[in-house]
Amino acid sequence: MTDVVTRDDFLSFDGVRIGWHELGHGRPLLLLHGLFSSGDMNWRRYGAAAEIAGAGHRVIMPDFRAHGVSAAPHDAVAYPPDVLAMDIEALVKHLGIDDFDLGGYSLGARTAMRLLVRGMQPGRAILSGMGLAGLTGGTDRAAWFLNVIANADSFASGTAEYAAAAFMKANNIDGAAVAHVLRSQVSTPADAIAAVATRTLVLCGVDDRDNGAAAELAMTLPNAALVEIPGNHMSAVTKPDFGTAIAAWLAHA
């Protein structure tokens, strides 16, 4: 049955507890969520995980530290550079899987790229809600979110900052902990991205420019396919097209 969701957790490389949910059976697929979100929000709530699991995949959805069911320590020492990638490396080791696929949305795509350049070798990769500039840079974007966290109650209704702060509050995000996550981010040079030979789906909303241009990312990767679906950065992930596109690509890549 693909509709039975299981939950588990483990102690990561530094003893911080990381939780994840699973759905389905078959070839493992790790799916990483975006900032202020969770595996449940990004992958389960709008049906993408169920569709992908129904196509014959064991969908593994970890929650990043400071998100979802994972621990949210406040000590800065718990957030070294590339900490999110280090947690996923520890999870893969804990699960004992060596033949799997890897995907991510937004911050999850950024983390997936860090994993690829750090040496992880999934069979296939999915980078969604992400453009080239979001990987090679990202410091301005991180500063924008740090401002949202620091001033969450001060933005006018209708602004992008107000929407981001509302999303953060709705998901009960610990702002102090997530600020450390943002400061732990490491950018990836374009030449390192161009050296990634993994078959990759670059999937993005046609109106999504939050992290640069997805087409530029697809052109930089040597073995990538670009698929655009309706929506912007916040809405594309909620549409049926999102899970359908991933399941279809996995079936033929």
Helix/strand layout:
Layout: E1 5-11, E2 17-23, E3 27-32, H1 39-44, H2 48-54, E4 57-62, H3 83-95, E5 101-105, H4 107-117, E6 124-128, H5 132-136, H6 139-150, H7 160-170, H8 175-183, H9 190-194, E7 199-205, H10 214-220, E8 224-229, H11 240-252
Parallel strand pairs: 3-4, 3-5, 5-6, 6-7, 7-8
Antiparallel strand pairs: 1-2, 2-4
Tell me what you see in this structure.
- This protein is of the alpha/beta class.
- The protein is 39% helix and 19% strand.
- An 8-stranded mixed beta sheet has the order 1-2-4-3-5-6-7-8, with helices on both faces.
- α2 packs parallel to α11, α6 crosses α7 and α6 runs antiparallel to α8.
- The protein is globular, with a radius of gyration of 17 Å.
- The model has no long low-confidence stretch (mean pLDDT 96).
Strand order of the largest sheet: 1-2-4-3-5-6-7-8
Number of strand segments: 8
**Helix/strand class:** alpha/beta
Sequence stretches where pLDDT stays below 50 over 5 or more residues: none
Q: Biggest sheet, in brief?
A: 8 strands, mixed
The percent range for strand residues is 15-25%
Number of helices: 11
Mean pLDDT: 96
Radius of gyration: 17 Å
Q: What pattern of helices and strands is seen along the backbone? A: EEEHHEHEHEHHHHHEHEH
| First-residue to last-residue Cα separation | 25 Å
Cα shape: globular
Q: What portion of residues is helical?
A: 25-40%
Summary keywords:
253 residues; 8 strands; eight-stranded mixed sheet; 39% helix; alpha/beta; globular
Quick structural summary:
By secondary structure, this protein is an alpha/beta fold. The protein is built from 11 helices and 8 strands.
